[in-house]
Structure formats: structure tokens, C-alpha cells
């Protein structure tokens, strides 16, 4: 996907609008959009002659937002950050399209270099911790404060420490 298409998806997820002319007001009035936008800009510079500028933008963004989105994580378009404070997305984490992540969520590795995969349309509520070589299925929901270290099926809802399935997707 091209940069502008990814930004447009992020803009739509965070503001409900998709015209790129709305980028500046969204940047000013929607902290979640500003955070993911600056991450995308920094990422665009990494691996180019402007690599140091990318690292500087990333560091400034991390300090200004309190949101640590590692430059080596893979974050799909349409990330919605309603409250982008204390969110940590580790180095090898893969985040799908249209994911919602609330404040104080941590996604990262366990004791080895194994990172979680967060499926398309998943929602991670405040304080959730997701770690290790696990998959959070598409449209799954991870409850507030849940500690997840096992796979979560698509459409399921998990809660608790350790997280347990408390709701499943409706069958058709």
C-alpha cells in the first residue's frame, strides 16, 4: 500500500474522514492520529539517506505521545488509537488492518524473540498485555487488564489474568 493510502486509512479510523485535506486538523485535534501519522513519517525515512531524521521523528513522537511504536513492528493501515498513552508495540509485533488499541496496552515478546500477531479488526482494551508467539484472531477482543499468552480465536472475547475466553463469535 502507498503511504498516502495508509495515512488515509489511519485518518478514517481516527476521525471518520478520509480526505487528505483533513490531515492537519486531525493532527492537531486527534492525538491518536498524530501519533500513528508521525510513526508512519518516521518509518518512511528509515532506510533512506534521511535515516537519522526518521530516528529523530520517532524519538520525538515517542516522548510527546508516551506511545512506543517500534520502527521494526509491522502496523497495518487503519490503526485506531483512542487514547495513545503508554501503548507499547514491540519490535517484531505484527498488527493487522483496522485494529483498535486503547491506552496502556503492551504487545511484545516473551523470553525469546517471538512476537504476537494481532489480527485484522481486533480490539485491545486498556491495560491489556499480549506477549509471545501467539495470534490474536481477526475481530477478537482482549478485555481491559487481560494478560494473554495463548492464541485467541477469531471473534472471541478474552478477559482475566491469565486470559480466558468469556465470549465467542456468533455462529451463522
Automatic annotation (TrEMBL):
Catalytic reaction equation(s): L-serine + acetyl-CoA = O-acetyl-L-serine + CoA
Keyword DNA damage: no
Keywords linked to the UniProt accession: Acyltransferase, Membrane, Transferase, Transmembrane, Transmembrane helix
Transmembrane segments: 20-38
SUPFAM superfamilies xrefs: Trimeric LpxA-like enzymes
InterPro entries (alphabetical): Ser_O-AcTrfase (IPR005881), Trimer_LpxA-like_sf (IPR011004)
Top-level enzyme category: transferase
Protein name per Swiss-Prot or TrEMBL: Serine acetyltransferase
Provenance organism: Sphingomonas citri
